[in-house]
Write a structure and sequence with these properties.
Elements lengths: L2 E6 H11 L7 H13 L9 E2 L2 E2 L4 E8 L6 E3 L6 E3 L4 H14 L4 E5 L1 E2 L4 E4 L1 H8 L13 E4 L2 E2 L1 H14 L5 E5 L6 H9 L3 E5 L15 E2 L15
Parallel strand pairs: 1-4, 1-12, 4-7, 12-13, 13-14
Antiparallel strand pairs: 2-3, 5-6, 8-11, 9-10
Helix pairs in contact: 2-3, 5-6
């Protein structure tokens, strides 16, 4: 029976930008890497060879879960400048990524939606500076704030698809490219039904407790370069 590969899009994009920072907003490159790294899971984990060649599983389908980009017009709270988010670099990247993925064979794009209550928030690293007293609220610049958007329907779609693939006996292996514990309920159902459940966190460490809910841990993408610590 074949393998289904499910990809948490938001998580993948964060890790892709960590692995290839120079291509952070290249949708074509992100799509090509996603497809290549996903298909690599079809080779057996140890790269073993037989007389017939490399052991390779059959692909059922790659599922990519994401949301359309923010397309609102909002005013920056610091400068009061109007911003059309549909024209931002992030929006263009997301649209290009989705468009390229739709052209890939055996790849399904599953889109949720963004919550309507998008709000401005101070960036985490700036909040730390404020709490340490290294800057004041009056020092905030235009780039110190960002819009906080929340995805709706993505985790639910992942859970529904894992459950459906499992109960319909369409696959005997599920590979999930993700990094948090939201997948655990679906993983429990899959494993109880005899599905081999593999997690690919793209070199991100996972909490020890998650190991009990998966059958294997395997990453196929290149390891990110270590982050250089800022000089004191």
């Amino acid at each position: 029976m074949p393998t289904a590969i499910l990809v948490d899009g938001g998580y993948f994009i964060k890790r892709f930008r960590r692995i290839e920072p120079d291509n952070a907003y290249d949708g074509q490159r992100a799509a090509e890497c996603l497809h290549r790294w996903a298909v690599m899971h079809l080779n057996d984990g140890n790269g073993k060879r037989s007389r017939q060649g490399i052991h390779r599983r059959e692909l059922y389908r790659i599922f990519f879960y994401d949301c359309p980009p923010l397309a609102k017009k909002m005013h920056n709270p610091i400068t009061k400048k109007a911003i059309d988010f549909s024209q931002t670099t992030e929006a263009r990247f997301r649209e290009e990524l989705h468009s390229v993925l739709l052209s890939k064979r055996k790849l399904a794009l599953r889109l949720g939606h963004l919550s309507d209550d998008a709000q401005w928030t101070i960036k985490p690293q700036v909040i730390r500076q404020l709490l340490k007293g290294k800057m004041a609220l009056d020092d905030l610049q235009e780039s110190d704030v960002q819009v906080d958007t929340r995805q709706k329907g993505v985790d639910m779609r992942i859970g529904v698809d894992v459950t459906s693939l499992t109960l319909k006996k369409q696959v005997d292996q599920v590979v999930l490219i993700a990094g948090d514990a939201d997948f655990v309920p679906a993983a429990k159902i899959a494993r109880r039904e005899g599905i081999d459940f593999v997690l690919d966190p793209m070199w991100q460490k996972i909490p020890p407790g998650l190991h009990e809910h998966i059958d294997g841990l395997r990453t196929t993408c290149p390891r990110p370069k270590p982050v250089e610590k800022a000089k004191q």
